[in-house]
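Predict structure. Input: Carboxymuconolactone decarboxylase family protein, 157 residues.
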Amino acid sequence: MDARLNYFASPTAGKVIRYVMSAGKTLKEGPVPAATQELVALRVSQINGCAVCIDMHTKDAAAAGETAVRLNLVAAWREATVFTEAERAALALAEQGTRVADGAGGVSDEVWAYAAKHYDEEQLTALVILVSFMNMVNRLNVVTQQPAGSYEPGQFH
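Output follows.
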């Protein structure tokens, strides 16, 4: 499979991608635990069908010590017993923040309160930005059919 566009060959994309990568780096250095960030990025990417990001976040998480069991259960996190309450709150926020076009009405007060019980305002801000960021990056990849499978852990860091 060949990508429809090569972002690295485009002057316009080159300018924008530099800022996108910088934003991603800022989020990684933020107040949300790294494991939670990877789980959220993975779940958003699963919902959006972004193979490139699924490839990246599973490999980065595994390289950072995440277990295969937890990575394999992210798609069914509600029924899985391997996630903390805080991770569950972040995953619920990620799902509702991603499925806004599904007629779900955005993030419910219940899910927001659940997240706010586990994360302070700065962490909630970072989670909201992470969910939004992942949705944007997923769309850049899905629309242009970027191929997946060749990512090496830490490749873009």
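The CA atoms of residues 77 and 83 lie 7 Å apart.
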